[in-house]
């Protein structure tokens, strides 16, 4: 029987995730994910990557070549289901990624999508599609 932590710091795991990306440390990044973890990427089109081998194939090229401002932190917010991170992608584009976690503290699921509002609002640019 596995020994599960009574609690774990989800924000610290997300900070470790961001640090691993900045360091281009694929092994440390993969260690943060559960074996059966999934990533739903909506940045260009909707694609789902299931399991560590698929996640490794997704992240390897993104960690090998990225811009100097890549993986910059915009905002990190805990939610009832996990953590929301607004950051700059490997291309320096604003992205929102939502993490949910397994009981052992590993990332179980993440979903990323473009998040231009975060960067535009920080720069004082009005939102062209304000909420109604």
SSE-based structural type: alpha+beta
Largest sheet at a glance? 6 strands, mixed
> What count of helical segments does DSSP give?
4
Determine the mean pLDDT.
86
Helix content: 25-40%
The residue ranges in which pLDDT falls below 50 over 5 or more consecutive positions are 118-132
- The total of beta strands comes to 6
Summarize this, please?
The chain is of the alpha+beta class and 132 residues long. The chain is built from 4 helices and 6 strands; from the N terminus they run ααββαββββα.
What characteristics describe this protein?
six-stranded mixed sheet; alpha+beta; 4 helices; single chain; 30% helix; disordered C terminus
Notes on the structure:
By secondary structure, the protein is α+β, with helices and mostly antiparallel strands. Helices cover 30% and strands 31% of the residues. It has helices spanning 10-22, 26-31, 52-64, 116-122, and strands at 33-41, 47-50, 73-78, 83-88, 94-101, 107-114. Strands 2-1-6-5-4-3 form a six-stranded mixed β-sheet, sandwiched between helices. The radius of gyration is 15 Å and the shape is globular.
